[in-house]
Write a structure and sequence with these properties.
The chain has 9 helices and 4 strands. The protein is mainly alpha-helical. It has one domain.
């Protein structure tokens, strides 16, 4: 009986991240079906980011403890504001860009939505790397690469929506002519810094039962592969769709090999 009660105690908090994760998937499906440039699509974008960041914080809390959950929120938000504010002021490390007013209130010129988007992306990237690797160096490197690869799909969509623009979008990846290669390099650098901090944070604060990583990995997979489908079928972004699939294949293969072992 005590074992059954313990399982129930674990299963209840484990289910919490699934609620915003499923809502995110449903909301993301609605994005390409709304009018471009309209208030409804802006609301959908905000909702996706808010739900995704909620998944990350709730999952980190229930799976690694409250100290880890709070730390993930603070570390990711602070790192995002530092990198983005420096990027806006100097053009380093992403290249010269500017945000539109559609993203709402800002801090040091950085819209509040941006650190939340980082939070939505960062924690699932670290979790995936944690599943695939052993050792801090490999984990940080893979997590940073996944973090940057995710943006390869998302950034063209956000530029298309008018949320930000690049002063010099070329040279760029083949098939994506609105986002410069400097942005990818910047995301890799930011990812290395952030994933190092997250790895140290988890090592020092994590406690409690591991409740599984399904919800944040669903967010990661849907926003990458689901985003690629939306780009190809509805948003007129075949280049980023192709890159999304291309970048996802090695990860899927690695996960399959890992599961078989």
């Amino acid at each position: 009986m005590s074992g059954l009660a313990s399982a129930r105690q674990v299963s209840r908090p484990a289910a919490l991240p699934w609620v915003p994760a499923v809502l995110l998937v449903l909301t993301a499906i609605a994005y390409p079906l709304t009018d471009a440039g309209g208030a409804v699509r802006d609301a959908v974008s905000w909702t996706i980011v808010l739900l995704g960041s909620t998944v990350s914080v709730v999952h980190a809390t229930v799976s690694r403890g409250a100290r880890t959950g709070g730390g993930v929120l603070l570390v990711t938000a602070a790192t995002a504001v530092v990198f983005e504010s420096v990027g806006l002021a100097t053009g380093f490390p992403y290249g010269e860009y500017s945000y539109s007013d559609d993203l709402g209130p800002t801090l040091f010129g950085v819209p509040f939505l941006v650190p939340l988007a980082w939070l939505m992306m960062a924690w699932p990237s670290w979790l995936l790397a944690h599943r695939l690797t052993h050792g801090r160096a490999a984990r940080v490197g893979v997590a940073a690469a996944v973090f940057a690869a995710w943006d390869v799909v998302l950034d063209p969509q956000m530029v298309q929506a008018g949320y930000w623009t690049w002063a010099h979008p070329r040279p760029s990846l083949p098939g994506i002519d609105t986002v410069p290669l400097t942005n990818l390099a910047g995301w890799l650098l930011a990812g290395l810094v952030l994933m190092t901090l997250l790895d140290l944070l988890v090592a020092r604060t994590a406690s409690g039962p591991d409740t599984g990583d399904g919800a944040p990995l669903l967010v990661l997979g849907w926003m990458t592969l689901g985003g690629a489908v939306a780009h190809a079928g509805w948003l007129g972004l075949p280049g980023s769709a192709a890159w999304g699939v291309l970048l996802a294949v090695p990860v899927l293969v690695a996960l399959a090999v890992r599961a078989r072992r």
